[in-house]
Structures are given as structure tokens and as C-alpha cells.
UniProtKB/TrEMBL annotation, chain A:
Record organism: Alicyclobacillus macrosporangiidus
Domain FAD-binding: 6-319
Protein name: Electron transfer flavoprotein-quinone oxidoreductase
Keyword Flavoprotein in annotation: yes
Cofactor: FAD
Span of domain FixC-like C-terminal: 375-433
Keyword vocabulary terms for this entry: FAD, Flavoprotein, Oxidoreductase
Any one GO molecular-function label of the UniProt entry: oxidoreductase activity
Automatic annotation (TrEMBL), chain B:
Keyword Isomerase: no
Residues of the 4Fe-4S ferredoxin-type domain: 18-50, 52-81
Pfam family, one: Fer4_ETF_QO
Name this polypeptide is given: Ferredoxin-like protein
One Gene Ontology MF term: iron ion binding
Family, similarity comment: To ferredoxins from P.putida and C.tartarivorum, ferredoxin I from A.vinelandii, ferredoxin II from D.desulfuricans.
Taxonomy, superkingdom: Bacteria
């Protein structure tokens, strides 16, 4: 019996892969969707926030049927001190209709999204590892799997197997990520009754809040988060792997340090841990992106470092890249040109999309966060900001002018003098506007 | 919260063979940091002083991939568990 042949093989039924499979299958292509998990989503973790726009472009009004948690009506940024917090937030009725974003859970959402690809005609091949690429000279012509007689052939292989992407490595287009190009996120899902969540976060039924956390990460470059789901909270923290190598602090101890903060404790009290999870986030940014297409292959999503760490965007960029790869494949299917030149249209489309534009804007962020100033940015400065706020807001008979001086001195000292403070401000600005 | 209690909340379908392999235990014996005892979020790696080797509790692995990248000696062979095995998140 000859090995099965498809127009396209998609490896990985996450947001990038499922959208690519859906895009191609709904145009009549023969598509195989391979997933190593027990079901799509079984291996996947995110914070997580899902934005409306990228998926709406593919599946209009998807939110009426997709498994989502709460629509995000308020976003907060908390700068944590030891036992205090400087808080900044934005809440708007404009986030309600149509919603800008929802909180979600990947095990449920990804299974649903893969189901859309299946219903469009993609053939699910789950509980199966794509172990290597099959090549004919320089051309990728299929994948080997860990099933018996598991070789599959296709005109194109879309590599959407996530941050660890052993396939992209086997392709040789990128070597291993460096420890400062990935962050390890650890996360817990805590169960609490709906009404308790709504009361503590000041929201109505179906509405939610996201809180991003800076500080109290044991001096490591990283961010924490606390998001509201229907009857659970998602709390976690991501820290740069290069910092984890050095600090001799366990990842879950960083999470404990955040969970034990008095202002966080107040919000999560009584929550029962329903799940503990860990996942890498590709945070190398623009300069860590590998080549995206070649003879018979394309790479999407986390496997190609498509994460905007500054805006916690990854799932949406993955879905967009999946759509662009799917559309490219549909065009190549029509012409029969699956060469590096034909599939190069995908690389070009990514370059013209917000994936490239946004990652390019934040290009400098990676070197700032992996550099010597990380300890200052994520340790000393958040605490100094809290101390400065305490100075400014406490009334104790001292003149406001003196208080202001003292507050400014606290920030200056933390940054190692005026030049240090200006320097870090300048570098921060440059990093976010490259 | 202890790591044992955390891992108790995780759903696994345990493969009967390890997907994690120490390439050369001799490298671990002279490793100056043994950072794997720290950076793994599931405490998969533990140095056994008596046996003079790193023990690998692959059953607890969350498949994050940190060890593959963070082992400074590149001494950990990291692959996926057999299809359908390993971690199966309920929430993710």
C-alpha cells in the first residue's frame, strides 16, 4: 500500500496550526492535522487572553460558540513593592460591545478551534508525534510519525509545533533557542465561586479583569499575571530562562512569592489549586525569528518566535500566521508551485503584517531585558516606585517640596544616580520604539 | 504550596519509557552548578549523592523544554513522549 498523500500536512493543532488547516480545508484542499497530545490543547498553556480581531477575520462572530471565559472590561498594571502596590488601570464600556478580548483556557479553546478545522474537512491525526521531516533533496515532502507505517506525504508541511519545535530544528533553519530567548511561565488555576470573583474584582456576570504584575520576581526579568475566568483565576509568572539558570530559585518559588503578596493574597484567598502548568514563551523577539518558508515548508506561531512579550500577544499572532500560511498554500495549490519561491509569498505576507511590524517596534526589548539592567528594572525600581508613592501620599507635617525631593531621590538612588535614571528611561524608550 | 501538591493536580498519562535522557552521567558528576535541580518547574532532576548520578523523574515532566535549553552542558536529550502520552492539561 502506498503511503497516504495530502495537499498539506499541518504539524500541531494549536492556534496557528488549526487556523492554517481550517483555511486550507475550507478551500477544498486535502489536509492532515497532526497533534501529539491526547486531544488538541492537551499540551498547550497560555496566560491567557484571546483577542477578538485575528480570529474574527477568519470565523465571524466566533465568540457566540467558542468556549471563552470572561470578556475583559478592565486591564490593570500593578507595580509590586514588598507589601504595597502602585496600580494603574483602564476600564471602559467600549470593551463590552464588541468585546476586545476574553480570558480563556487553552485545553478547551484549542480543542474547539481544531474541531472547526475538522468540520471544514481537515483529517485529524491526533495522539501522534511527527518525529522528523521527509526530504527529497532540499525539498520537504512529508513527515515521519511515531505510528506504525506512519509516513505521510504532502506538497507542503506547515510546521506549527510550538516553542520547542523539534521539527524546525531538524530542518536546520534555526539552532536551539538561547536561554535568554525564552521565558518559563508557571501557572496555577485556582477555583473560586463566580460571585466571589465578581465581588472581589468589581465586575458583573461574564465580565473580567486582567492584572499584569511587575516586581517581586526574585530579581529576575519577568512578569506576573492574574486573570479572572468564570469560576477560576489564572495566576502565573514568566521569568527568563537565563535568569533561572543563575539564581538558584525554583520557578514555583517565584510564583509563591507573588501569591503571598498581601494584595494578591486578598484576591486569591480560598482558591483551590485545580491545575499547575509550565510552558516556555518565545521572547527573543524580532531578531530571533528564523526563516519562515522554503522548499515545501512554512513555519508559524511560537515555532517562529512570533510573540510580542510587551503586549502579552502570542495566540493572536499565531492565528494570523496560520491564516497567512493557509492562504499562501491555497494560492500555491492553484498554481502548483510549491517551491521556495512560491511559498516565499508567506514570508512576504508576514513581513507586511503586524507580526513583523510590532516585533520590529519592540526589537530592542530583548537586549534590555536580558542585559545587566534587568535586576534594576524588575527589582529595585518597582520597590523604589512604591517607596516614592508612600512618600508623596503620606501626610506627616513635612512640606510637599521636601517630600517630592525625597521621592525623586529614592528613584534616583535605585537607578544608580541621575545619569542612570535618564539612561534607563532612554534605553526603555528605544527598546519599545525600534 | 509544595511541589508534590502541585503535581497532584496535574493529569498525566504516563508513558512506560522516559522521553528524557541524561547523555553522560559523568558530565553531571563534575557539573559545577547542577542548575537542573533548580530550574525545572516539576523537580524532575535530583542529584543522588550515594549513586553519584542525576535521577530523572520523567513521569512528572510538564514538557516545557526548559531543561533542554538551560542545561549548560547540553547533557539532556529531550524528546516528546509517545503520541497521546505525557501531560494532558484540563485547563492549560
Amino acid at each position: 500500500m502506498s503511503a497516504p498523500r495530502f495537499d498539506a500536512i499541518v504539524v500541531g493543532a494549536g492556534p496557528a496550526g488549526s487556523v492554517a488547516a481550517y483555511t486550507m480545508a475550507s478551500q477544498g484542499m486535502r489536509v492532515a492535522l497532526i497533534e501529539r497530545g491526547e486531544f488538541p490543547g492537551a499540551k498547550n498553556v497560555f496566560g491567557g487572553v484571546l483577542y477578538r480581531k485575528p480570529l474574527e477575520d477568519i470565523l465571524p462572530e466566533f465568540w457566540k460558540e467558542a468556549p471563552l471565559e470572561r470578556k475583559v472590561v478592565e486591564q490593570r498594571l500593578w507595580v509590586l513593592g514588598k507589601d504595597s502596590v502602585v496600580s494603574l488601570g483602564y476600564r471602559s464600556a467600549r470593551f463590552k460591545e464588541p468585546p476586545n478580548a476574553w480570558t480563556g483556557q487553552r485545553a478547551k479553546f484549542d480543542a474547539w478551534l481544531a474541531g472547526k478545522a475538522e468540520r471544514a474537512g481537515a483529517i485529524p491525526i491526533y495522539e501522534t508525534v511527527a518525529t522528523s521531516l521527509i526530504r527529497d533533496g532540499d525539498k520537504v515532502v512529508g513527515v515521519q510519525t511515531d505510528r506504525e507505517e506512519g509516513d505521510l506525504y504532502a506538497s507542503v508541511v506547515i510546521i506549527a509545533d510550538g516553542v520547542n519545535s523539534l521539527l524546525a530544528k531538524s530542518l536546520g533553519v534555526h539552532r536551539e533557542w538561547k536561554p535568554d530567548q525564552v521565558s518559563l511561565a508557571v501557572k496555577e488555576v485556582l477555583a473560586l465561586p463566580k460571585d466571589v470573583i465578581q465581588e472581589r474584582f468589581g465586575v458583573e456576570e461574564g465580565e473580567g479583569v486582567t492584572i499584569e504584575l511587575i516586581g517581586e520576581t526574585c530579581g529576575m526579568a519577568g512578569l506576573g499575571f492574574l486573570y479572572t475566568n468564570q469560576d477560576t483565576l489564572s495566576i502565573g509568572v514568566g521569568v527568563m530562562v537565563s535568569d533561572l539558570q543563575k539564581k538558584k530559585v525554583k520557578p514555583y518559588q517565584v510564583l509563591d512569592s507573588i501569591k503571598q503578596h498581601p494584595e494578591i493574597q486578598r484576591l486569591i484567598a480560598g482558591g483551590e489549586t485545580k491545575e499547575y502548568a509550565a510552558h516556555l514563551i518565545p521572547e527573543g523577539g524580532f531578531d530571533a525569528m528564523p526563516p519562515l518558508s522554503g522548499d515545501g515548508w512554512m513555519i508559524c506561531g511560537d515555532a517562529a518566535q512570533m510573540v510580542n512579550a510587551a503586549h502579552r500577544e502570542g495566540t493572536d499572532l499565531a492565528m494570523l500566521s496560520g491564516r497567512l500560511a493557509g492562504e499562501t498554500a491555497v494560492a500555491c495549490h492553484a498554481t502548483g508551485d510549491w517551491s521556495a519561491g512560491g511559498l516565499g509569498a508567506y514570508t512576504q505576507a508576514v513581513k507586511e503584517s503586524i507580526i513583523h511590524r510590532d516585533l520590529k517596534k519592540y526589537r530592542g526589548l530583548h537586549s534590555l531585558l536580558s542585559g545587566p539592567q534587568a535586576e534594576l528594572l524588575f527589582g529595585a525600581l518597582p520597590q523604589a516606585l512604591n517607596d516614592a508613592a508612600y512618600e508623596m501620599l503620606s501626610v506627616d507635617g513635612e512640606s510637599k517640596r521636601d517630600k517630592q525631593k525625597r521621592a525623586a531621590a529614592l528613584l534616583r538612588e535605585a537607578a544608580g544616580g541621575t545619569a542612570g535614571l535618564i539612561g534607563i528611561g532612554w534605553r526603555g524608550w528605544r527598546a519599545m520604539n525600534g | 504550596m509544595s511541589i508534590e501538591n502541585r503535581l497532584y493536580a496535574v493529569r498525566y498519562r504516563v508513558d512506560d519509557k522516559s522521553h528524557l535522557t541524561i547523555r553522560d552521567q559523568a558530565v553531571c558528576q563534575t557539573c559545577p552548578t547542577r542548575a537542573c535541580e533548580w530550574f525545572c518547574p516539576a523537580d524532575v532532576y535530583a542529584w543522588d549523592e550515594g549513586e553519584g548520578r542525576i535521577l530523572v523523574a520523567y513521569e512528572n515532566c510538564l514538557e516545557c523544554g526548559t531543561c533542554r535549553i538551560a542545561c549548560a552542558e547540553h547533557n539532556i536529550e529531550w524528546t516528546y513522549p509517545t503520541g497521546g502520552y505525557g501531560i494532558a492539561y484540563k485547563f492549560g
